[in-house]
Design goal:
Elements lengths: L2 H19 L5 H16 L3 H18 L5 H16 L3 H18 L5 H16 L3 H18 L5 H16 L3 H6 L1
Helix pairs in contact: 1-2, 2-3, 3-4, 4-5, 5-6, 6-7, 6-8, 7-8
């Protein structure tokens, strides 16, 4: 049995037990569904991952505050799946929901906000909306320059995203500066 199949069998056993012993909207179920979704995402089984993340969302919408960081993570995960499946309008919609939740949950310079701004910028870039992408990338850059060391890998990712976007716009001199 492959590692993937082994892991999945344990998660399915957990789901089976939890269905018998917990109410249908218990947060433990959403956690296990989320784990299965992440596992499916790791092996590029995006439609199945989406199915599990949607189950997570249904439970968390019923059981969590609208400002719960778990809800923001779920929105982000669904956005990532839609991005991978090429459904950019859905991806950006879920990233914006994630951002809205995070803005109500975290301080304005929380690193989690930077990740979501980067995700939005990436979708803008993939859609050919380069000016919008650059505006989106400025927000994580501002957060990361204030909160991370100058050698932090997430800051490097943001610089790289800005450089790639300038390259896509054929602003080669600017791209080289990043």
């Amino acid at each position: 049995m492959s590692d993937y199949a082994s892991v999945l069998s344990f998660y399915k056993k957990a789901i089976e037990i939890r269905h018998k012993s917990l109410p249908p909207n218990h947060h433990f179920l959403s956690t296990t569904y989320n784990n299965i979704g992440e596992l499916q995402m790791e092996i590029d089984n995006f439609p199945v991952a989406l199915k599990y993340f949607e189950k997570v969302l249904q439970i968390r919408l019923k059981t969590c505050s609208p400002y719960n960081s778990s809800l923001a993570i779920t929105y982000n995960n669904i956005g990532l799946i839609h991005r991978e499946m090429g459904d950019y309008s859905q991806a950006i919609s879920f990233f914006q929901k994630s951002l809205g939740t995070k803005q109500k949950t975290f301080t304005s310079y929380h690193s989690s906000l930077a990740i979501t701004y980067n995700n939005i910028g990436e979708i803008n870039q993939l859609m050919g909306e380069f000016s919008q992408a650059l505006m989106s990338y400025q927000k994580p850059l501002e957060i990361q320059e204030k909160t991370f060391s100058l050698n932090h890998s997430e800051l490097a990712t943001t610089y790289e995203n800005i450089g790639i976007t300038h390259q896509s716009k054929e602003n080669y001199a600017i791209a080289l500066s990043f």
